[in-house]
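dumping this here so i dont lose it again. seq + smiles for 3NM
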Amino acid sequence: MKLRGLYAITDSQLLAGKFLAYVEAALDGGVTLLQYRDKSSDEARRLREAEKLRELCSRYKTQLIINDDAELAARLGVGVHLGQTDGPLTPARALLGSKAIIGATCHSHIELAEQAAKEGASYVAFGRFFNSSTKPGAPAATVEMLADARKRLHLPICVIGGVTLENAEPLVGHGADLLAVVHGLFGADSTQEVTRRARAFNALFKI
Ligand SMILES: Cc1ncc(COP(=O)(O)OP(=O)(O)O)c(N)n1
Ligand SMILES: Cc1nc(C(=O)O)sc1CCOP(=O)(O)O
Ligand SMILES: [Mg+2]
């Protein structure tokens, strides 16, 4: 499967009271990867919500990724995204198997991405490219490093952090394969607008 297009990421606060409706609206517009990102420690709710997302994703033929938690990903038979402090990639690959999608946060460091590739990552994520209300303190990355990363890396590159329809085009132009978006997608006033935004993000890959 080609990892290219919109990578939608959920946010439990932003989506409170409209979680499944907004996720389904995004899937309807086209989503390559959907990440379940819930930073709470309510394990029962996380399992329940992740199971619902797995069902929805299977209906829309979208791949589900769990943030942070390789054990939960293994339990559901889906992929995982791991940051630099979320545990090593090699055991996660052994746990999830060769076909699972495993992503790695690399901030703005191409060396971290090269290491992640060696350890079996399916894609690498760089960010934050713009101001992010979801994660304001994330370290910054630049379009120049993205262009350099594109020349040096041979696996899909994901970009994240404040990505919107207004600023995403240069990221795709400089080699991004996946646009990872929370607020720029789900911070919409209606399900119709979520679907429109998802379609518009995907259209950036067809230019
Ligand atoms: C696609 C994608 N890229 C980066 C991140 C950030 O991961 P991490 O640094 O572990 O931070 P948290 O999201 O866990 O707060 C991500 N989740 N997804
Ligand atoms: C979860 C996350 N990680 C980032 C990083 O740079 O590693 S930025 C970020 C938040 C992404 O949300 P939004 O699209 O609303 O900015
Ligand atoms: Mg993490």
